[in-house]
Amino acid sequence: MSESRYDASHIEVLEGLAAIRKRPGMYIGSTTESGLHRLVDELVGHAIDEAAGGRAGAVDVTLTADGGVRVADDGRGIPEEDIETALTEVRAGSFNVVGICVVNALSRRVEVEVRRDGFRWTQQHERGVPLAPPCRHEQTPDTGTTIAFWPDPEIFGTAECSSAALSDRFRELAALDELLTLTLTDERPPRAGRLP
User: Fold this and answer.
1) Model confidence over 153-178: pLDDT tens digits?
2) How far apart are the C-alpha atoms of 105 and 9, rounded to whole Å?
3) Are strands 181-186 and 58-63 parallel, antiparallel or unpaired?
4) Which residue, among 141, 4, 17, 185, has the nearest Cα to 91 in the 3D structure?
5) What pTM, to 2 d.p., does this model score?
6) For the residues of 86-112, what is the DSSP string, one character each?
7) What is the tens place of the pLDDT at every residue in 90-112?
């Protein structure tokens, strides 16, 4: 019987988002419906952090017709200089950056819109890679962050979010803060076999 040796040549060092994509279960538990719900929780958690600090009052979650999930809040908005960092670097810090970068790493596409300091900013990513630097648009008096993501089928296959499970979770979260308005909208067309 041949003896195989385990040495340094067997070690693969992964950094940043590549590590998340290689071992998603370490970050979200599974690549099934519950893993998708964990991604939604990460974004909702960011918005609730803003609400807990008295800086936001509304969080709107939408399951889009094309299979995406959009989470919008009326908080301060991620600072423009931190948008790309929050989505691409695995590090602890403000704005729940660990969770947001995990969402980005496990999505085929992410679109970010930030309203802050009198302007609207946007950025798009594909499989964790920014397509361009954050772009400044028109002036706006509004503040807040909207992040939309489309789960990567290479990771999640055909798994989908359950609006019923998310609704139950959001009821629990809303009960913890009576000043927070948390809404869920399901724009997906009815499909046989899909749980509500």
Assistant:
1) 999 999 999 999 999 999 988 887 77
2) 26
3) parallel
4) 17
5) 0.87
6) HHH-----GGGHHHHHHHHHTEEEEEE
7) 754 444 435 789 999 999 999 99
- Alpha helix stretches (DSSP H) within the chain: 16-22, 25-28, 33-52, 83-88, 97-105, 153-156, 163-176
Residue at token pair 């706006």: 140
Q: What is the CATH number of domain 15-186?
A: 3.30.565.10
Single out the residue of 194, 177, 174 nearest to residue 186, CA to CA. 194
Question: Residue 76 has what pLDDT?
Answer: 92
- End-to-end CA, the chain: 55
Reading the block at residue 40, the tokens are 């939604």
Q: Length of the chain, please?
A: 196
Q: Which of 68, 147, 150 is nearest to 109 (CA)?
A: 150
Domain boundaries, given as residue ranges, for the chain: 15-186
Residue of 36, 21, 20, 25 lying closest to 159 (CA atoms): 36
- Enter the tokens of residue 99: 């969770």
